Amino acid sequence: MSEVYNVSSTLELTMDALHSFIEGQSDLPDNIDALERDRRNSKFHVKAINPDVGEYTPTARLVGTVRERIVVVGDDGELTHETVHQHQSRQAGWTEPPAAESLDTTTVEYVKFHGEGDDILRNTTLRGEMFQILCQLTSVAHSGYVEGVEVTEEGLNPVRYSAEDGEVPVEMSIQAVAEQSDSEVGSQQARTDESADKPTWTSYS
Protein backbone atom coordinates (compact mmCIF):
# COMPACT_ATOMS: atom_id res chain seq x y z
CA MET A 1 0.00 0.00 0.00
CA SER A 2 1.40 3.38 -1.04
CA GLU A 3 1.36 6.71 0.77
CA VAL A 4 0.62 10.24 -0.39
CA TYR A 5 0.73 13.62 1.30
CA ASN A 6 -0.25 17.23 0.62
CA VAL A 7 -3.17 16.25 -1.61
CA SER A 8 -4.95 19.16 -3.30
CA SER A 9 -7.66 19.20 -5.95
CA THR A 10 -10.02 21.50 -7.84
CA LEU A 11 -11.36 18.78 -10.12
CA GLU A 12 -14.91 19.04 -11.51
CA LEU A 13 -16.76 16.56 -13.71
CA THR A 14 -20.33 15.63 -14.53
CA MET A 15 -22.11 12.99 -12.47
CA ASP A 16 -22.64 10.97 -15.67
CA ALA A 17 -18.91 11.04 -16.41
CA LEU A 18 -18.12 9.89 -12.88
CA HIS A 19 -20.57 6.97 -13.04
CA SER A 20 -19.26 5.95 -16.47
CA PHE A 21 -15.69 6.06 -15.20
CA ILE A 22 -16.44 3.84 -12.21
CA GLU A 23 -18.55 1.37 -14.16
CA GLY A 24 -16.01 1.09 -16.96
CA GLN A 25 -12.92 1.00 -14.76
CA SER A 26 -10.94 -2.16 -15.56
CA ASP A 27 -7.45 -1.01 -14.61
CA LEU A 28 -7.68 -0.43 -10.87
CA PRO A 29 -4.53 0.23 -8.82
CA ASP A 30 -2.99 -2.70 -6.97
CA ASN A 31 -4.79 -3.58 -3.70
CA ILE A 32 -8.14 -2.18 -4.88
CA ASP A 33 -10.64 -4.81 -6.02
CA ALA A 34 -13.57 -2.47 -6.68
CA LEU A 35 -14.94 1.03 -6.13
CA GLU A 36 -18.10 1.60 -4.11
CA ARG A 37 -20.32 4.64 -4.65
CA ASP A 38 -22.43 6.30 -1.99
CA ARG A 39 -24.39 9.54 -2.25
CA ARG A 40 -25.22 11.36 0.98
CA ASN A 41 -27.36 14.41 0.26
CA SER A 42 -24.97 16.89 -1.42
CA LYS A 43 -21.89 14.69 -0.87
CA PHE A 44 -20.69 11.87 -3.13
CA HIS A 45 -18.28 9.24 -1.78
CA VAL A 46 -16.12 6.85 -3.81
CA LYS A 47 -14.70 4.14 -1.54
CA ALA A 48 -11.88 1.63 -2.09
CA ILE A 49 -12.88 -2.02 -1.62
CA ASN A 50 -10.39 -4.72 -0.64
CA PRO A 51 -11.69 -7.93 1.04
CA ASP A 52 -8.33 -8.46 2.74
CA VAL A 53 -8.76 -5.29 4.79
CA GLY A 54 -10.38 -5.90 8.16
CA GLU A 55 -14.09 -5.23 8.56
CA TYR A 56 -13.51 -2.47 11.10
CA THR A 57 -10.70 -0.76 9.20
CA PRO A 58 -12.03 2.15 7.12
CA THR A 59 -10.51 2.32 3.65
CA ALA A 60 -9.71 5.52 1.80
CA ARG A 61 -12.51 7.37 0.05
CA LEU A 62 -12.86 10.36 -2.21
CA VAL A 63 -15.42 12.95 -1.13
CA GLY A 64 -16.99 15.31 -3.64
CA THR A 65 -19.73 17.93 -3.53
CA VAL A 66 -22.76 17.57 -5.83
CA ARG A 67 -24.32 20.61 -7.47
CA GLU A 68 -26.82 21.22 -10.26
CA ARG A 69 -26.24 23.88 -12.88
CA ILE A 70 -28.15 25.03 -15.93
CA VAL A 71 -25.54 25.07 -18.69
CA VAL A 72 -25.47 25.91 -22.37
CA VAL A 73 -25.43 23.19 -25.00
CA GLY A 74 -23.26 24.07 -28.00
CA ASP A 75 -24.32 24.01 -31.63
CA ASP A 76 -22.58 20.63 -31.94
CA GLY A 77 -24.71 19.16 -29.15
CA GLU A 78 -21.83 19.06 -26.66
CA LEU A 79 -22.02 20.61 -23.20
CA THR A 80 -20.12 23.88 -22.89
CA HIS A 81 -20.15 23.59 -19.06
CA GLU A 82 -20.94 27.31 -19.05
CA THR A 83 -23.91 29.03 -17.48
CA VAL A 84 -25.89 31.39 -19.69
CA HIS A 85 -24.11 34.39 -18.12
CA GLN A 86 -20.66 32.82 -18.60
CA HIS A 87 -21.44 31.93 -22.20
CA GLN A 88 -22.69 35.43 -23.01
CA SER A 89 -19.71 37.08 -21.25
CA ARG A 90 -17.20 34.96 -23.16
CA GLN A 91 -18.66 35.99 -26.52
CA ALA A 92 -19.32 39.64 -25.66
CA GLY A 93 -15.82 40.77 -26.71
CA TRP A 94 -16.16 39.33 -30.23
CA THR A 95 -19.77 39.57 -31.31
CA GLU A 96 -23.11 40.59 -29.97
CA PRO A 97 -23.82 38.00 -27.24
CA PRO A 98 -26.79 35.76 -28.01
CA ALA A 99 -30.02 36.39 -26.17
CA ALA A 100 -30.60 34.00 -23.27
CA GLU A 101 -33.85 32.70 -24.77
CA SER A 102 -32.09 31.73 -27.98
CA LEU A 103 -29.63 29.41 -26.22
CA ASP A 104 -30.14 25.68 -25.83
CA THR A 105 -29.70 24.83 -22.15
CA THR A 106 -29.95 21.78 -19.92
CA THR A 107 -29.66 20.97 -16.22
CA VAL A 108 -26.55 18.97 -15.32
CA GLU A 109 -25.34 17.46 -12.05
CA TYR A 110 -21.66 18.10 -11.34
CA VAL A 111 -19.34 16.57 -8.75
CA LYS A 112 -16.50 18.75 -7.53
CA PHE A 113 -13.52 17.36 -5.64
CA HIS A 114 -12.31 20.65 -4.26
CA GLY A 115 -10.07 21.10 -1.25
CA GLU A 116 -7.00 19.78 0.49
CA GLY A 117 -6.17 16.66 2.50
CA ASP A 118 -9.14 15.10 4.28
CA ASP A 119 -11.53 17.50 2.56
CA ILE A 120 -11.34 15.26 -0.51
CA LEU A 121 -9.39 12.11 0.49
CA ARG A 122 -10.22 10.51 3.83
CA ASN A 123 -8.78 7.60 5.83
CA THR A 124 -5.30 6.11 5.66
CA THR A 125 -5.67 2.55 4.36
CA LEU A 126 -5.31 2.52 0.54
CA ARG A 127 -4.92 6.30 0.55
CA GLY A 128 -2.17 6.28 -2.07
CA GLU A 129 -4.18 4.00 -4.33
CA MET A 130 -7.26 6.23 -4.13
CA PHE A 131 -5.07 9.21 -4.94
CA GLN A 132 -4.22 7.38 -8.17
CA ILE A 133 -7.96 7.07 -8.87
CA LEU A 134 -8.36 10.81 -8.29
CA CYS A 135 -5.56 11.46 -10.79
CA GLN A 136 -7.24 9.15 -13.32
CA LEU A 137 -10.47 11.14 -13.00
CA THR A 138 -8.77 14.08 -14.73
CA SER A 139 -9.20 12.11 -17.98
CA VAL A 140 -13.00 12.54 -17.79
CA ALA A 141 -13.16 15.88 -15.98
CA HIS A 142 -13.82 19.16 -17.80
CA SER A 143 -11.78 21.39 -15.49
CA GLY A 144 -9.40 21.45 -12.55
CA TYR A 145 -6.24 19.78 -11.35
CA VAL A 146 -4.98 17.23 -8.81
CA GLU A 147 -1.63 17.34 -7.06
CA GLY A 148 0.14 15.54 -4.24
CA VAL A 149 3.44 14.08 -3.06
CA GLU A 150 3.80 10.30 -3.35
CA VAL A 151 6.25 8.34 -1.20
CA THR A 152 8.20 5.89 -3.36
CA GLU A 153 11.26 3.68 -2.87
CA GLU A 154 13.31 6.44 -4.51
CA GLY A 155 11.95 9.12 -2.18
CA LEU A 156 9.33 11.84 -2.59
CA ASN A 157 7.65 12.13 -5.98
CA PRO A 158 5.58 15.27 -6.72
CA VAL A 159 2.58 14.58 -8.95
CA ARG A 160 0.25 16.91 -10.82
CA TYR A 161 -2.53 16.12 -13.28
CA SER A 162 -4.87 18.56 -15.00
CA ALA A 163 -8.11 18.05 -16.90
CA GLU A 164 -6.67 19.95 -19.85
CA ASP A 165 -3.18 18.44 -20.09
CA GLY A 166 -3.18 15.13 -18.22
CA GLU A 167 0.04 14.46 -16.30
CA VAL A 168 2.16 17.59 -15.97
CA PRO A 169 5.89 17.43 -15.14
CA VAL A 170 6.42 19.27 -11.87
CA GLU A 171 9.26 20.26 -9.57
CA MET A 172 9.12 21.02 -5.89
CA SER A 173 11.41 21.91 -3.03
CA ILE A 174 10.94 21.30 0.67
CA GLN A 175 12.02 24.16 2.85
CA ALA A 176 14.21 23.28 5.79
CA VAL A 177 13.26 24.72 9.17
CA ALA A 178 16.11 26.19 11.20
CA GLU A 179 16.63 25.08 14.80
CA GLN A 180 14.91 27.28 17.34
CA SER A 181 15.53 28.09 20.96
CA ASP A 182 13.10 26.82 23.59
CA SER A 183 11.57 30.28 23.91
CA GLU A 184 10.99 30.51 20.13
CA VAL A 185 9.42 27.08 20.09
CA GLY A 186 7.14 28.03 22.95
CA SER A 187 5.96 31.14 21.14
CA GLN A 188 5.11 29.18 17.98
CA GLN A 189 3.20 26.19 19.36
CA ALA A 190 0.64 26.53 16.60
CA ARG A 191 3.20 25.46 14.01
CA THR A 192 2.81 21.77 13.26
CA ASP A 193 5.26 19.26 11.84
CA GLU A 194 3.10 18.97 8.74
CA SER A 195 3.28 22.67 7.94
CA ALA A 196 7.03 22.65 8.53
CA ASP A 197 7.49 19.95 5.93
CA LYS A 198 4.98 21.33 3.44
CA PRO A 199 6.45 21.34 -0.07
CA THR A 200 6.81 24.47 -2.14
CA TRP A 201 5.69 23.88 -5.74
CA THR A 202 8.26 25.84 -7.67
CA SER A 203 7.53 25.28 -11.35
CA TYR A 204 5.52 23.37 -13.90
CA SER A 205 6.82 22.63 -17.36
Give a nutshell description of this structure.
The protein is of the alpha+beta class and 205 residues long. It is built from five helices and eleven strands, in the order βαβββαββαββββααβ.
Care to describe what's here?
This protein is an alpha+beta fold. It has one domain (3-204). Helix content is 19%, strand content 40%. It has 5 helices and 11 strands; from the N terminus they run E-H-E-E-E-H-E-E-H-E-E-E-E-H-H-E. The strands form 2 sheets. Strands 1, 2, 3, 4, 5, 6, 7, 8 and 9 form a 9-stranded antiparallel β-sheet that branches. Strands 10-11 form a two-stranded antiparallel sheet. It is globular.
Question: Strand percentage, roughly?
Answer: 35-45%
User: How many domains comprise the coordinates?
Assistant: 1
The strand count comes to 11
User: What is the gyration radius calculated from CA atoms?
Assistant: 21 Å
Helix run count = 5
Structural class: alpha+beta
- Shape field: globular
The poorly predicted ranges are 187-196
Spell out the helices and strands N to C.
Answer: EHEEEHEEHEEEEHHE
| N-to-C span | 29 Å
Largest sheet: 9 strands, antiparallel
Average per-residue pLDDT, rounded, comes to 85
Work out the helicity level. 10-25%
